[in-house]
Amino acid sequence: MSLNGWTLNLIDAHTLIIQEIEAGAVQKDIAKTYALGLRSQEGFDYKAANEAILKRWSPSGLARIKEMAWSGKCFDVPVQDRQEPK
Q: In a 10 Å sphere around its CB, with 0-12 CB exposed, 13-18 middle and 19+ buried, how is residue 84 labelled?
């Protein structure tokens, strides 16, 4: 993911999602990690992430997480609208 010249690569996003679920994270937090995983150049094992999400939540929960992740609605300020603090 590139943002104003910055590049972010989240390695093993699916493992992080599993750990977040085990720690009791809410769907919005999982969606943030999912979104970063989708945009990472390191690849994203979405099948493993989806399986972990489905173990914790229903198929509609997975759909909510994916929708928030793909749209960026999981972030308080959409990624494209963020500005560096001055």
A: exposed
Per-residue model confidence as pLDDT tens digits over 48-78: 999 999 999 999 999 999 999 999 899 886 5
Number of domains in the chain: 1
Query: How does pLDDT run across 4-43, given as a tens digit for each residue?
Result: 666 677 889 999 999 999 999 999 999 999 999 988 888 8
Where would I find the H helices in the chain?
A: 13-22, 27-39, 46-56, 59-71
With a CB cutoff of 8 Å and minimum separation 6, the contacts of 68 are: 27, 28, 31, 34, 35, 74
**What is this structure's pTM?**
0.80
Residue 36 lies in a domain: yes
Range of the domain at 16: 8-74
One-letter identity of residue 4: N
The verdict on residue 82 lying in a domain is no
